Amino acid sequence: MKVLFDGFWWHSGPPSGRTVLRETVRAWRRAYPDDALTLAVPRRDLSVADIPAGVAVIGTMMNLHPLVNGIELARLSREFDAVVAQNFAPWTGRSAVFIHDALFKSHPEWFTRSERLYLAPIPAMARRAAVVLTSSSAEAARIRHEIPKTGPVVATGLGLATELANTPSEEPADLGLKRGRFLLSVGRLNIRKNLERTIESSLESGVVTADCPLIIVGGEDGRGERSVDAPAGAVRFVGHRSNAQLRWLYENCALFLFLSLDEGFGLPPVEAHEFGAPVIVSDIPATRESLDGMDGVTFVNPLNGRQLSEQIASKITADRVTKTPTDPAAAWNECVRTIRDALHAARQR
Question: Which domains does the chain have, with CATH numbers?
Fold first, then answer.
């Protein structure tokens, strides 16, 4: 099978999109070594793209992702059995497009005007794909509802990032944290992540102080919230961190908070649980799908500040989670098998 991958985010891009792209290509190469894989990256990134052995690479010329996929990948698709794209399907050719979520349709108020304009072509382009992919069954249901008249919508699942799973942890010395004496939240900083209520509830719980701070990892992205006043040192925004430092934070936090209003999948609480953190997480369909029944996981209403405060106060002394480490390679191999089977099924229709 000859497959062309949309590599627009291979070198740089949103963390979730970059992870899905890199892990999919590597797993496909590992699981199906006889398939011929080609990665289409922006020409400016050809010299720094770090292409896996055995994967061919070509450069694309356009600067906007929808145009690259809609026009350039469509033209290139004639030479391949299938194209695997992210968010924007090629206008012609057999393709599978991975749509991370359709929240821009169900909750447009969470997005800036420029974000909505950027995402606006997704529905029309999705209808040109042979199959639509997404990470969870919950998100597949949303896409079927919000973007009707597409082809099959298939949930692939996700795995942990291999680099995060395999890297030795490294204490972030610049933060001066004490093991077990901080709370942690991870994710892009925007209105959907519900950080305003997370901070307020953490402070109202009486747990978060300068000596036991709430550490928030992630960069600003999209529509933000108003800032919340907090005592000096009690709430600390520490930006992006390396995989090694992120793993240390997961392994040593007293409690992990993920109170997002909605998600297509929600990988950070899965990562935190993998590394032993007790987790308080929003009771939304995607997190129920990935974490229901897991030891050390507490589901809460992300809009109920009082419940959040009470749970933070009661769970701060929870024991670390003991579990057998999962194999990220196996999860990504299964993800690739699902994609490949969906493309084969599309060829037979």
Answer: 2-159+329-348 (3.40.50.2000), 162-315 (3.40.50.2000)
